[in-house]
Structure formats: structure tokens, C-alpha cells
Amino acid sequence: MNTPFKIGISNSSWDGLFFVVVCLILVSGCQSDGLQEPFEYQTWSQYGGSADQSKYVIQDQITRENLHQLELLWVYPTQDEQSYQHSPLVVDSLMFVQARNGSLVALHAKTGEEIWIHANLQGMTRRGLSYWESEDKSDQRLLFTIHNTLQAIDARTGSSILSFGTNGYVDLRAGMGRPIEDITRAAPSTPGTIFEDLLILGASPGESYLSAPGYVRAYHVISGDHVWTFHTVPRPGEFGNDTWPKDAYRYAGGVNCWGEITIDKQRGIAYIPLGSPTYDYYGADRRGANLFGNCLLALNARTGERIWHFQTVHHDLWDYDLATAPQLMTVRINGQEIDVVSVATKQGFVFTFDRETGSPVWPIEERKVPASDMPGEETWPTQPIPSKPPPFVRQEVTVDDISDVFLSEEEVRQWKDRVARAKTGLYTPISTTETITMPGATGGANWGNSASNPSQGMMYVMSQEYPSFYQLAERVPVYGNDNQARMATVQSIERGQQLYTLHCQLCHGNSLQGTALGTPLLDIGRSIDFSHITQVVQYGLGRMPPVSSLTEDQISDIHSMIRDLSEKLVKDSVTIDGPVVANGGVTLPGELLTPRSYNRAGAEYPGGVAVPQKRYYTGYGLGFPYILKPPWSTLTAYDLNTGTIRWQIPLGEDDLALEKGHRKTGVPNGSQRNGMIVTSNGLIFSSVTNGRIYAFDAKDGSILWRTRAPCGISSIPAMYQIDGQVFLAFNATTPSSSSWNQDRSENDQGDQPSQERSYIVYALRE
Fold it and tell me: Residues 13-57: pLDDT tens digits?
């Protein structure tokens, strides 16, 4: 039996590692402070700034002393009503953004002028792009996923590259270990990472029973050829296969990388943060530790060969994916320099390892945890707990945590009674009795929430303190022939229409067109996933109040209805003015363009496998963001030279709490879908979901500057230089809980844009 919780190192990798180490010794005089090439930290040509995802920038132009001179330089309105998570990418003088009905737009990064528009790319990778260039820059490419395909666009002209793949695309459904016709989701929600001539790509196959496995794959950036695959659910004969039931590789899914992939370019190692096996909350059909679920996985970036792994959760039952980017740093411990990789988790831990061997920098204890009382379920008896550094969030909910910031005395009493009756505590298995998990399904830390100063051993983690209220219940899945599935979908749409008319139509219109009270929903079924809609409905967003009376099943029906009506009303091609050079990407076969329903209940098991007869489900339980005492979100600075927290501050201030006189609360869910920038001269720039932008002092977390964006922010910012001038860019396209005009604080600085979904860029007054 393979031991899942100890470091697993591939013996055949040592020769390659020895060669890399020798090369590093020979070229060490050409590098400084263990950093990659300095120019990589002066631009923003990759998601997360550079291939190491550090969000680190070398600059000394913007300082503590002149921050107050930052001005709004230009604003680019998206000219639509969509909320984008797209992080700006900057190459030379061009910035690439998503706007105008999901088009890809190239802007002059110094002025915001439109250079070219590739129109109507609805369904493109939600969070950003990958960029590659040849050594002489004669070939510059933007790579992205759309409609379960991988495509490439010429970064200079905006035209699709038809020589890429087959007629300009690669079908990502192929090679995922399932019949291609059964794959509904094969593309990742986060862009892949470039290494040499390879694009290393994760996947987001879904979280239902029998979702496809999220294999990690690499493709050649010029030809589109598939180069290697790492099977995250091991097949027979592969390492880790015996940590699953014998036939699990035929039906087990998930174990996917939907967050950021980090590359150590000097060593040629890709660090992959992997997610949970499915179904996330009930694992009777996947007894065992389930490698490589919830693993930090180190792969040879050229071949996909495993070098080492560490599993942060065994047999996950809490949706504790690894979602944040692993951070690469050089630390100094007892006078010795160690190159480390460190990863923050949803459950609030930071695990730190030697970058080459995977050895823990500080001891990790396997601690006993409670057993499950669910039929057929076998929890793993222990879970790994790092001795250093300490957690960055609370990991349990007690009656003393209930807040009176927004609750009446009677509501406080009711919540305390509810918490007292529920199960709680880190790694307490979910059951048919209500179980409170802290942190909940969104973390803790989520994608975009980690950054570092690589040479100083400082790591920064944005996090939310947000519980989930789970309760498993049996549900009979709908599967079988196409007619049965189609009938189930029709019934769901009909129920959704009734619920939409009752709860949604007044604000969003009878044809999803929007009104003065609410935004259009025409494309929400295609561009927004079910889990995000559930969160918005349950706890509100912007002007929309929470609709707590709706269950997740009812929200699922509304989502089915919106998706169906969107497909009937939204045209594939919308006329856009401006410098349009192409439209809709490459021509695709009909089966790739036809959206397929995402069956949350899962499909039917393959014949001849021994699996439980019952399936249990629970909602995400994220409808109660304000019940706990603040802070609701934090920013934590870790000194990994000592394994300690140097400082921790509330991240932002909640506008509703401010009205009641409560300060330094953090913002509920404030750090999810956000990021930060760390500069070489000791500044941290960060945004919060309610639209505030901050500059913090990296020494102590004190606020040095802040301003308000026109809308909320749900993406990673960017910092770049052109002609010696430093620019700071944000994607402000998400409705925020309050507008600038409604809530202008005397401490906010800088000219403010109008309340319009926009990309905004700041720079120092010249």
C-alpha cells in the first residue's frame, strides 16, 4: 500500500534533478537573490505577473511618500452589463482585456485606446489568458480556452491562428478518461501557465458524482500537439492507484487543477495545486486516501513525470481543494538558505516544503480526526497538521462567535441554539445532522489569494472567514437514456420559469433583458456557473438583496431556465463597432457549440463496479456571511524564515457595518476572486469585492492609500512599466455593495471614475 501522506519521490527523476542542479551551480553568478530574470518582475505578461505566480513587481517609482499623487490615468468602459473576472495581461505597450459582449480587446496600455477587437468570444477562459512569444518576438500568441477547445490568437493582429491544432483548435474533451460525448466541461476556469514552448493546463470538469477526472495536460504552443498528461486519478499500474477502490479510475472524477499553476523555470518544475475528488462531500464510492486529490504535486514541466507530492487532505469530505498559487521563495533558517515552495489552503493552513525534494521545512503531524457516521463512508483516520506556521483563519465555530453586528437579540439567541445543536470542528465529517465547517466551501484562501516577495521569504495570504452549513440528504439521481435526461431538464426549466416569475422578473425582466432595478441576465447561464449564482442569490450582491427563502434545488431550476432562455435569445454574433479584426474565434463543429446541461446529480456508474446504492448530497451552505463576529476577511503576512505571522489585518471595511459604526471588520467574502501586488520597495496593492483599492505597508500592514473603484473587483490586478512609467490596472466590472457617490470616505484619495463597469488604470501625476 502506498503511503499517501508521506512525500512520494520518483526515483527516475533524480538524474534530471542532478543535471538541473549542476546547471544552476554554473549559472548562479548570473542570477540575483534566487529570483528569475529581473525583467519578468517589471511587466505583467503572465497570469499572476510571471510564471511563478508571485504577483511580485520590481519598481521604485511609486513609494510610500508619493502614493497620494496616484491619479486615475484612463478608464475603459466594457460597454456591456457583464461581470468579468478577467485579469489584464500586458505585453510591451498592449493590454489585453475581455469586454464588449465577451470580446477580446487589445488596448494601448498607456492610453486605453482600442487597437483591435476580436469580437464575440463568449465562453472564453473566465479569468485570463496565457501569452507566449518566440525568442525574436516574430511570433506572439495569446492562448485561451473556449467551448471546450484550446485556441490561439496572434497578439499583434487579433486574428485566430488556423495552423494551431486542427483547423485552429484542440478539442480538450479528448483524453480525459471518459467517452468524449459524456464530457460536459473540459476546460479550466484559470488560464494555463507557459513553460518554454509548452502550455500546461488544468481542468474544471465539475463536482458531481461521475464527473470526469481533471488530468493535467501540456500542449505545444505552436502546433497545438498534445505533449504529456498526468493522470490525477491513477490508472492501474500507476503510482497511487491502490489508494482508490479497484475500479475507481473508471468513474471517479475531480482531482483537478482549477487554480494557478506555478513554474520554477530554473529547475523545470511545475507545482500543481490539485482539488478534491468527487463527489466532494460523500465518498463511499472512493474509499481510501484518494491520491492525488488535494495534493501539492511537483512535476517535471517538460515530461509530466512526477517528482514528489504531498497530500494536504486525505479522502477529502469538505471541498478543501488546493486553489491558491504555490509560492516560490528563498528562506534563511538557522543560517542556511533553502529554496522552498509554500501553499495556502482553504482550511487555513500554510504548508512549506523544500522545492526539490518535497521535504517539509517544519514537522507535519498526522493527527487523529473524528470518524463518519454515514453509511458506507470511511473517513481517513488522520489528517496532516503543520507545526509551523500558525493558521491564518479560525477553524471552528462556537456559540461565542455569533455576532450582534446585524442580528437582533432574538436572532443571536436562535443562532447560538443552532450552533449548539450542530456538529462543528475542523475535519468533523459531514452527516445528515447539520454540520458547520469553518472555513467553508470558499475558504480560507481561494484562487488569486497568495503572493510573495521571493527573495525575502515573505508570503502574503488574503482570506475570508466564512462558514458552510452542511447537511447530507439522500437524493435519487436522474440518469439513463437521453429522453429521461431531456424530460428531467424540461421539468426543471418549467419549475424555474415559475420561480423566476415570482422572485426575479420584476428586476430582471420577463426576457432577461434587465430593468432599472436589475441587470440583464441574457448570458448568465453560459458565463456564470451554478455555484456562483447560488452564492449571489443566497447572500446578495450589489443592489440585489439575498433571497434566503430559495433552496439550492430551486436555484438550480432557475439556473436551468435562464440557461435555456439565454440560448434562445443570445445571438452568437453581436455587431460591435470599432477596430474589429475577427469574430467568434475559429469555426467549430456543432457539437462543441451546443451547450450541454450540467447534471449535478451525476451519471450512471459503469457496469460491473461495486458501488453504494445510495447517493447523498448537500448544498454549499454559504447563505450566512454576517452571523460571525468580525473580521470577515483578512490579509496575513507570513515570515517563512521563522515560520511566524509577522502581522495580520482586517481586509477592507464592510459598508453596511460602517453605517452601524463598526470599523475594521473586513468584508464578507471580500478576498474571494481578488488578488494583490507585492512590490520590491515594500508596498502591497490589494482590492476587495466591494470595490475598494488599498495600498498597504509591507512592514506592518498599515494603510498608506486607498480609493474606490466604479464597481466591485473580482480579479487579480496588474502592474507594468512603459517608457519608464509604472501603471496599476484593475478590472472593476462586478456590481459592488455601494457606489462611490453613496459612500465617499474622507480618507479615500484620487479622482474617481463614473459608476460604470470598466478597466481602470492609475499612475503617478507626471
Answer: 444 444 444 333 333 333 334 444 545 798 999 999 999 999 999
Whether 546 and 623 have beta carbons less than 8 Å apart is answered as yes
Length of the chain, in residues: 766
| Residues 356 and 17: beta-carbon distance below 8 Å | yes
Residue 175 forms part of a structural domain: no
C-beta of residue 636 within 8 angstroms of C-beta of residue 650 = no
What's the CA gap between 223 and 499, in Å, rounded?
Answer: 48
- The β-bridge relationship of strands 676-679 and 56-57 is parallel
Give the cell for residue 256.
483537478
Which residues make Cβ contacts (< 8 Å) with residue 587, sequence separation at least 6? 167, 168
Q: Which of 113-117, 191-195, 420-424, 689-693 has the lowest mean pLDDT?
A: 689-693
Query: Nearest 5°: CA angle at 196, between 354 and 50?
Result: 60
Is residue 376, in this structure, part of any structural domain at all? Answer: no
* Residue 631 grid coordinates: 473580521
How far apart CA 374 and CA 633 sit, in angstroms, is 33
| Helices 552-569/530-539 angle, 10° precision | 120
- C-alpha cell at position 407: 442580528
Q: How many domains does the chain have?
A: 2
Cis peptide before 326 (omega within 30 of 0): no
Amino acid at 57: V
Evaluate whether 313 touches 347 at the Cβ level (below 8 Å).
yes
486 in any annotated domain: yes
Residues 482, 580 share a domain: yes
Q: Are 90 and 112 in contact (CB under 8 A)?
A: no
Q: What is the pLDDT of residue 25?
A: 37
DSSP-assigned states of every residue in 680-705: TTSEEEEE-TTSEEEEEETTT--EEE
Strands 435-437 and 423-424, bridge-based pairing: parallel
In whole angstroms, give the CA distance from residue 286 to residue 377. Answer: 9
Regarding whether 568 and 485 lie in a shared domain, the answer is: yes
Nearest of 487, 450, 209 to residue 351 by alpha carbon: 450
Is residue 686 domain-shared with residue 584, that is, in the same domain?
Answer: no
Query: What separation in angstroms does the CA of 88 have from each of 38, 85, 281, 723?
Result: 20, 10, 35, 19
**Nearest to 342, CA basis, from 27, 681, 716, 637:** 637
Determine the structural domain holding residue 481 and report its residue range.
477-602+610-617
d(Cα 238, Cα 212) in Å, to the nearest integer? 18
pTM equals: 0.89
Average pLDDT over residues 646-656: 93
Could you tell me if 596 and 491 lie in one domain?
Answer: yes
Q: How far is CA 584 from CA 117, 193, 250, in A?
A: 11, 24, 35
Q: Three cell numbers at 450?
A: 497568495
| Radius of gyration in angstroms for the set of CA atoms belonging to the chain, rounded to a whole number | 24
CATH of the domain at 521: 1.10.760.10
Answer for the pair 57, 49: CB distance below 8 angstroms, yes or no. yes
Angle at 562 between CA 558 and CA 565, to 5 degrees: 135
Residues 6+ apart with CB under 8 A from 745: 706, 708
Selection from 119, 106, 48, 47 nearest residue 76 by Cα: 106
Is the Cα torsion angle 21, 25, 27, 29 positive or negative in sign? positive
Residue 679 lies in a domain: yes
